[in-house]
Amino acid sequence: MLELGPGTRVTARTPKGARSAQVQDSRAGFYLCLFEDGSSAWVDARDVSPAEPVPSPGGFAPPISVPAQSLPAAGSFNSPLAAYPCGGCGRPGADYFPRGTAPMHRACANLGPDVLPWPWLLLAYGVVLPFGCTFIGALLASIPYYVWRNEYPLKAKAYNRHVWIAFACSAALWLSLGALSSLLARKP
User: Which ranges constitute the DSSP H helices of the chain?
Assistant: First the structure.
């Protein structure tokens, strides 16, 4: 298989048809293509061919012809993730991108949904509000983020966002309590 480097002009077969693009990055079996309209997508390496002849030891090689593949109907592509085929089952719509391997469906990778359940919010606010301005609060609240960040990135980001909100609320609470106590201590 021909390896295309960043900046290489290519023709990519997408659900919208053959489109001119520029390679931005690559993963195992996929290229991140930047299209002329400014959009970008990961495209299977089998659906990408150089737009210009690539130098070979004996001169120039002709462009690689890619056989047409059967793609789902255009109406079935409702989300930007729908263009990513799963490395496990081959169906489009991969939503888990492990490092060094092809994108997969979360179910094919034996992972649960990437959403933050509400009991974790109770834990985040319950730990951070009373201890938020201390090292203990920051340490306790950060543990789930570091546990989840590789396999559940959306859950980890949502949890981290709520921890920072709780930290800001805690800082405001403790500063206002400090100001109130100093005002009460000044009165004769």
Answer: 118-131, 135-148, 153-186
Q: Cα–Cα distances in Å, from 135 out to 23, 65, 121, 128, 131?
A: 44, 59, 19, 10, 8
The rounded distance, in Å, linking the Cα atoms of 91 and 103 is 11
166/121 Cα distance (integer angstroms): 10
Q: Which domains does the chain have, with CATH numbers?
A: 9-71 (2.30.30.140), 118-186 (no CATH)
Tokens 């951070």 belong to 128
Write the pLDDT tens digit of every residue in 25-47.
Answer: 888 778 888 888 878 888 888 88
* Cα distance between residue 119 and residue 162, in whole Å: 12
- Cα distances (Å, whole numbers) of residue 171 to 3, 77, 156, 160, 181: 52, 45, 22, 16, 15
The pTM of this model reads: 0.51
